[in-house]
Write a structure and sequence with these properties.
mainly beta, 4-stranded antiparallel β-sheet, rod-shaped
Length: 196
């Protein structure tokens, strides 16, 4: 009979919603073992991911009607002794998948000899804030006594709320603070906004 080694891996084990995961399956048959015939690899997708169209390598096909979110399959055929191969595909983590969700995905190999193999990967969803901030001034050249208006724009482009957020701006030398919008307060030469 065949003596198979079957391993599955994922390139990201902690992922934010919207990220692309690449799954790779490696298989081999030991030296001196019997041939694995009519070999098939099946991978049924869990509910929290979406298949990336056309991403299955080596002639793999995707059937959206099987399982909670479709199934990727490969008809490998015969795997002789002392031979090996590899297949891969990609999915995206669905938007809105809750923080802490475990995405468990299992690949399975079957053959006519009745020597199955399987392996499972785990990716944990970890949504994170991604903050952007820009600072601009209305004059690039000024004379003593001129008023400068500094504008700070901020945004969260991430996949989770940013809590206890504060913006601090240290005043440069040779300027005097006049006012701040948005609840900004001055203390020891630093203007602070507690955004929340």
């Amino acid at each position: 009979p065949p003596v198979l080694t079957f391993t599955k891996s994922v390139d990201i084990t902690s992922s934010a919603p919207g990220a692309t995961l690449t799954y790779t399956i490696n298989y081999s048959n030991a030296s001196g073992a019997g041939t694995s015939t009519n070999t098939t690899i099946l991978d049924t997708l869990p509910s929290d991911v979406t298949y990336v169209s056309g991403s299955a390598s080596s002639g793999g096909s995707f059937n959206a009607t099987i399982g909670p979110n479709g199934r990727v399959s490969w008809n490998i055929g015969s795997v002789a002794a002392n031979t090996s191969g590899s297949v891969s595909f990609q999915v995206t983590v669905n938007t809105g998948t809750p923080n802490g969700t475990n995405i468990i995905n299992t690949g399975r190999l079957s053959n006519s000899e009745g020597v199955p193999a399987s392996d499972t990967t785990l990716t944990t969803v970890a949504a994170l804030p991604e903050l952007d901030i820009t600072l601009a001034v209305d004059k690039s050249s000024a004379s003593p006594g001129d008023t400068l208006v500094y504008t700070i724009n901020y945004a969260n482009d991430g996949t989770a709320d940013a809590n206890s957020t504060a913006i601090r701006d240290t005043l440069p030398a040779n300027v005097t603070f006049l006012s701040a919008t948005g609840g900004g307060t001055l203390s020891s030469g630093v203007v602070t906004w507690n955004i929340g």
